[in-house]
Design brief:
ten-stranded mixed sheet, 323 residues
Length: 323
Amino acid sequence: MLSVLCLSPAIDTTISLPKFPRPGDVIKGANETAHVGGKGLNVARWLALRGERVRLAGLLGADNAAPFEEELSQAGIEDALTRVPGAARINIMFTSPCGMFKMNRPAFPGLDASAFPAEHFAEKLLGRTASAPDAFLLSGSLPATFPADFYAQLIALLQRLGPIVLDTAGKALHHGAEACPALIKPNRAECAELLGFSLQTEADFLRAISRLLTRTPLVILSDGANGCWFAARETNGEAHAIYRVDSPLVPVVDTTGAGDTLLAEFCYRYFARHSGLTAETMAHAVAAGALATTRPGALPPDPEAVDRLAREVAPVRMDAHAG
């Protein structure tokens, strides 16, 4: 069993344009698709598709809850979401043959956060089972009214009960990383913001990973089409195991949810199946993330296709002492 938190659910809409617009253009012939999502829900959906038992806690707007409830029911995800007044946000991804851009709205901007302390969601993530989940996955941005250290508060409450995975950005990542979760997964831009320097060269990535490993024993640092870095503290607490995994070439349709699928596949193998930081675990995670970009919105790829593509992915051990 894995428990996932989603405080910012969304309906992800993808609009495919025949050309990239210029000022004054009237676009005709665009195709539009919409699917329920949000980072936590994307993670939970992939875990369920892999056959893992999943509990999804967090917030859900009562005004447009129906499509989310239908998705959770069909996927077999345990619904532990708290209904709140209002509607879940709608995000829009515009794609064209020469580029793409995304519009993300804030989640529940008028929500009274004082009604939802960290203890509330800790209870929801634990549920009614006798034992704690294999891991707690905290994914996505915080609603605007939530304190920036909310994830840090939640980590403090849950840490003794099981490993905690944190995937967020900005101040929430800064505070959350200081609380020492078991795993953090920033992307290149989020890592640069957290550490205060840009990541341009291989040496920059190695330096950044070494810094991150002082806060958490396990790091995933994603770099879009360039692939991903995985790192773990060695048992002596000084040396590090650092791997770079190049992303396989695939026809990109929409990048929404790619990082979520990568993280979910990794957690499925590392925490639920207790596989460790193996070449197979890393290869499958990168393959899942790559194939997620071939689908519109956050629609998950075919798990069997992920298994096939993973055979073509080869992690490379990097210099463990750089930076």
